[in-house]
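Annotated sample (chain length 317).
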Amino acid sequence: MDKALLEVKGLSKRYGDNAVVRDVSFAIAPGECLGVIGPNGAGKTTTIRMCLGLTAPDAGSIRYFHDAARAALQMPRDALAIKAQLGVVSQFDSLDPDFSCAENLLVYGRYFGMRDAAIRARIGELLDYAALSHRAGVKPGELSGGMRRRLSLARALVNDPRLLLLDEPTTGLDPQARHLMWERLQLLLQQGKSILLTTHFMDEAERLCNSLLVLDHGSSIAEGRPRELIAHHLEPDVVEVYGLGALALAEDAAHAPLRALAARIEVSGETVFFYTEHARPLMDLLADLPHLRTLHRPANLEDLFLKLTGRQIREDA
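Output written by the structure step:
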């Protein structure tokens, strides 16, 4: 890809007999948000770590900031030059608990060789961006989880990076804090920043990402724009049915005419999911079963995720 900020080709990593990442390739263009989704153990964090030079790949190439004017930088060969242009927010809080919010930004800027005057000129803007101007002198331990995540994001911007690598940046946040983080990330995209995002939240991926890479067991199993992936892999309508007796809809012969109206049926817990091209006839039959509760909705990214990777719970790898 011309002018790719990050281009990964054939990336692979094994630990003993366990292939954690298998021949993964992707690219991120300027101004794009690429989401990497997949179950626990799919290889998302290992992929990020290799892109950051924290884990050595067994095979493949990682090239940054390629354009016609200059050759691409390669990881790990050009790690320092690459990291000077990156912003990183990891899964786990790495803020210094002994420094205030403003001091965390100041100290972090020094890691990039920035002069104190240049960093201090950015601190007010960054704290305002993170909605933390009123907490400049407060230490991270006195902040809520959402505030700490916003401070981590502000810190990742101190060097004005071209590309942000965000590993599950909203995990553990309540809905209000998550929505505020989404707003802040949308602002960055509007400003022309590029983002590589791993997430377990399908609504987050659908809101923020121009394109998606779906990983499972270390391999890429789908890639494309969210709505295009949904249209390609799923029926347009989903009818969820739950309540006492719902499971019988998927099993009893008496409900065969109902099942015949669905292209595909899945059962999860006490809920039956009917995937269909035409929901109205199915809803009309369900109206004769008032003891059941129904929800008719369009297919979404969570449906895609579950179809491609399954509904079975995965333990952390």
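Annotation: The first strand starts at residue 6 and ends at 15.
Annotation: The chain has a mean pLDDT of 92.
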